[in-house]
Write a structure and sequence with these properties.
By secondary structure, the protein is mainly α. It has a single domain (2-140), classed as Four Helix Bundle (Hemerythrin (Met), subunit A). Helix content is 65%, strand content 3%. The protein has helices at 22-59, 66-102, 117-122, 130-140; strands at 2-3, 6-7. A two-stranded antiparallel ribbon has the order 1-2. Strand 1 and strand 2 form a beta hairpin. Helix 1 runs antiparallel to helix 2 (66-102). The two termini are 34 Å apart.
């Protein structure tokens, strides 16, 4: 079955841990590496934009009223949130590559069962099956 263009184990015998072919693993690696590089590029651009924004703020704060200050704070918060999100997603892609290298990609970190292919198609960096992810989210709330 394809995951964002890469073949991963389906429901047959190849779904068993460790039975992906070298070609399948190479295809998955290319997809994950491309995603990591894309996220890394987005992150670096966001850092550069955030730096420019802060430099403009430093030189342009004189005479600001409350609305101007509030707008700048909102922009700064949005930029910081974007940086955190991109960094988290980049880290997830990096972790998925490491799991692929050690042979655990596609298996749940919680219960070790295979993550459904449908989940990996939507979220190739998934590290938990739907059940374990739901339990984790309930505990966090």
């Amino acid at each position: 079955m394809l995951v964002n263009g890469a073949v991963v184990a389906g429901k047959g015998a190849s779904a068993v841990k460790g039975l992906r072919s070298t070609d399948e693993i190479d295809q998955i690696r290319v997809i994950l590496q491309g995603r990591f590089e894309e996220l890394n590029s987005e992150y670096e651009e966001a850092v550069a934009q955030n730096t420019r924004l802060r430099l403009v703020e430093i030189g342009d704060a004189a005479g600001d009223d409350q609305a101007d200050s509030g707008s700048k704070t909102a922009e700064r918060d949005a930029a910081t949130s974007l940086l955190k999100t991109l960094l988290d997603r980049r880290t997830q892609a990096e972790h998925a590559i490491a799991r692929l290298n050690d042979g655990t990609y596609g298996n749940c970190e919680g219960c070790s069962k295979p993550i459904p292919v449908e989940r990996l198609e939507v979220f190739p960096s998934a590290t938990a099956c739907v059940n374990c992810k739901s339990v984790r989210e309930r505990r966090a709330s």
